[in-house]
């Protein structure tokens, strides 16, 4: 097998030029160097680090890691796993003086005669690329994208120069395609008139009175990106629509190629377009040291553990329901909403028969809904048997409702970062951790193992008065085992796994791309309503203290 090889040249001021190599410690305890581009990014951030932010986030170059220079550690933003990193200074690369060597085709034949020059391609795509490269070679402030002239035309009135500055483009503007002229001026143009082409000054090599320009082969990627960003500012300022493209500069050539084709086709149709990267998902805050973590005023401790609570024994279902029911001697002429039989007729429940007569009818004291006693006892026996009852019609809760959440741990503290939409306060971070285990008698499949995916799960609340109120009620829900349950995941379809239990949490710290982040002005009110539906209100806080 024969494969091509290449040499790379780096500026003497860069990390490899200074002999700096960054390495991370792998699982076997040995050190592995970062890729050269990653090492250069880390070194640049290391040299420019701010005393208040001694870290660099590598998500901008496609890696979910944060390098903390204070502790010399690498932190995985998804799993929070930490590895050691180190900076070596003994890997000086050889210096090369003079101009960079010209690119050479591979493989080279030393004795072969020089091939005749191949004429440049004149297709719209190649002309577009060549014009961008030539603009980068001409230096900043030179605009070389011009409409190609199909036929000679008489001189027209001078046109105003294109703007060279404007409002700052959004982060992530990557590629620009299309003419820089307003859309209204291109309505009747043909395809050739809307395709960028090289100007006459570019075609002649170098402008009068100046030396030869650098070879196109020596242009680097940063020059092209700077030109694209400058032209993107002009497009966005003039109202040109932006098209988000996922993984525009990723390792796979598919997405960038599709993005380029999209831009060329829209340009050929006379439609200017600016391709941008979509917003980034920000799940976790920047790294926080232990000294920056604070306890929450008014809440004792910073951790809660739960174990499997046993149902209260000594009372039969009939004795439990007697507290919440009144007997009805003359049932109304309507259906029992549990068995769907008339209340004046015996219960239609066909399962294990409770020790009550099937024709007895009772009314719940709070909501006044009427059911067969036979049906209510059967419903209680099929539930958690924790001494509570929930009306099947209006969901009113009688007693203290508890759930079937597996054993685990809940941590909570304040971190010195603000959530989007809550810039006036810090953030409450909640960390749930539930290990896998074996299902108990209250779970769907007793004796069968269950999984726990995605733990520890990080959730966020604003450290405001209402945010602390929500946290206190979430602690009650945790103690009552109502936050999680065991069932089938709605996202993965996996059964016998730990799932959320109808109390929504915010798991995105700095974005809201999935709907589980901030800003969300209605979230705190919504979660208070969800907690109330589980029987957890401010009255519950007083009950817990008692």
Automatic annotation (TrEMBL):
Pathway of action: Protein modification; protein ubiquitination
Pfam families named among the record's database cross-references: DTC (PF18102), WWE (PF02825), zf-RING_UBOX (PF13445)
Question: Ranges of Low complexity compositional bias?
Answer: 204-217
Cross-referenced Gene3D superfamilies, in alphabetical order?
3.30.390.130, 3.30.720.50, Zinc/RING finger domain, C3HC4 (zinc finger)
A Gene Ontology molecular function term of the record: ligase activity
Q: Which domain of life is it from?
A: Eukaryota
Q: Which organism is it from?
A: Irena cyanogastra (Philippine fairy-bluebird)
UniProt subcellular location: Cytoplasm
Domain spans labelled WWE: 8-87
Lineage, opening ranks: Eukaryota, Metazoa, Chordata, Craniata, Vertebrata
| Cytoplasm in keyword set | yes
Q: Which UniProt keywords apply?
A: Cytoplasm, Ligase, Metal-binding, Notch signaling pathway, Repeat, Transferase, Zinc, Zinc-finger
InterPro entries of this UniProt entry?
Deltex_C, Deltex_C_sf, Deltex_fam, WWE-dom_subgr, WWE_dom, WWE_dom_sf, Znf-RING_euk, Znf_RING
Q: Which family does it belong to?
A: Belongs to the Deltex family.
Q: Which GO terms describe its biological process?
A: Notch signaling pathway; protein ubiquitination
Record bears the keyword Cell cycle = no
EC category name = transferase
Q: Tell me the protein's name.
A: E3 ubiquitin-protein ligase
CDD domains hit by this protein: Deltex_C (cd09633)
* Amino acid composition bias (Polar residues), ranges on this chain: 192-203
Q: What does the record give as EC number?
A: 2.3.2.27
- The UniProt regions of compositional bias labelled Pro residues, in chain numbering, are 152-164
């Amino acid at each position: 097998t024969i494969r091509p090889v290449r040499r790379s040249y780096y500026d003497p001021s860069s990390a490899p030029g200074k002999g700096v190599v960054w390495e991370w410690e792998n699982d076997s305890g040995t050190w592995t160097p970062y890729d050269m581009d990653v090492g250069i990014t880390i070194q640049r951030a290391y040299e420019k680090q701010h005393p208040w932010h001694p870290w660099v986030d590598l998500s901008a170059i496609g890696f979910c890691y944060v390098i903390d220079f204070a502790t010399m550690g690498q932190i995985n933003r998804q799993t929070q796993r930490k590895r050691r990193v180190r900076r070596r200074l003994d890997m000086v690369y050889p210096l090369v003086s003079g101009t960079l060597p010209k690119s050479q085709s591979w493989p080279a034949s030393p004795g072969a005669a020089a091939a005749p020059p191949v004429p440049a391609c004149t297709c719209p795509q190649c002309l577009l690329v060549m014009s961008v490269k030539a603009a980068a070679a001409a230096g900043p402030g030179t605009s070389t994208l011009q409409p190609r002239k199909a036929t000679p035309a008489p001189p027209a009135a001078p046109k105003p120069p294109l703007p060279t500055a404007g409002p700052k483009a959004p982060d992530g503007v990557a590629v620009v395609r299309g003419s820089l002229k307003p859309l209204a001026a291109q309505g009747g143009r043909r395809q050739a008139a809307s395709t960028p082409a090289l100007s006459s000054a570019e075609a002649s090599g170098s402008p009068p009175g100046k030396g030869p320009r650098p070879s196109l082969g020596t242009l680097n990627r940063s020059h092209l990106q700077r030109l694209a960003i400058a032209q993107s500012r002009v497009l966005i300022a003039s109202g040109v629509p932006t098209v988000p493209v996922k993984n525009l500069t990723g390792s796979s050539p598919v997405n960038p190629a599709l993005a380029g084709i999209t831009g060329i086709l829209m340009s050929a149709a006379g439609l200017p377009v600016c391709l941008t990267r979509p917003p980034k998902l920000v799940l976790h805050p920047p790294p926080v040291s232990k000294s920056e973590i604070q306890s929450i005023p008014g809440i004792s401790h910073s951790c809660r553990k739960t174990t499997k609570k046993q149902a209260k024994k000594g009372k039969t279902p009939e004795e439990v329901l007697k507290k919440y029911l009144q007997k009805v001697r003359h049932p109304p002429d309507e259906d029992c909403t549990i068995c769907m039989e008339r209340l004046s007729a015996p219960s239609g429940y066909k399962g294990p028969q409770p020790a009550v007569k099937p024709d007895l009818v009772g009314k719940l004291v709070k909501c006044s809904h009427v059911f067969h006693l036979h049906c209510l006892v059967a419903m209680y026996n099929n539930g958690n048997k924790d001494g509570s009852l929930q009306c099947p019609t209006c969901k009113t809760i009688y007693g203290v409702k508890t759930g079937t959440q597996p054993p685990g741990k809940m941590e909570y503290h304040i971190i010195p970062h603000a959530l989007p939409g809550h810039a006036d306060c810090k953030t409450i971070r909640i960390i749930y951790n539930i290990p896998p285990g074996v299902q108990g008698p209250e779970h769907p499949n007793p004796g069968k193992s269950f999984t726990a995916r995605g733990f520890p799960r990080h959730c966020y609340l604003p450290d405001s008065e209402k945010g602390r109120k929500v946290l206190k009620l979430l602690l009650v829900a945790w103690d009552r085992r109502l936050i999680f349950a065991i069932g089938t995941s709605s996202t993965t379809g996996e059964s016998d796994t730990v799932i959320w239990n109808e109390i929504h949490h915010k798991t995105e710290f700095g974005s809201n791309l999935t709907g589980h982040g901030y800003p969300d002005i209605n979230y705190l009110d919504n979660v208070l309503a969800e907690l109330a539906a589980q029987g957890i209100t401010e009255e519950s806080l007083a009950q817990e203290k008692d």
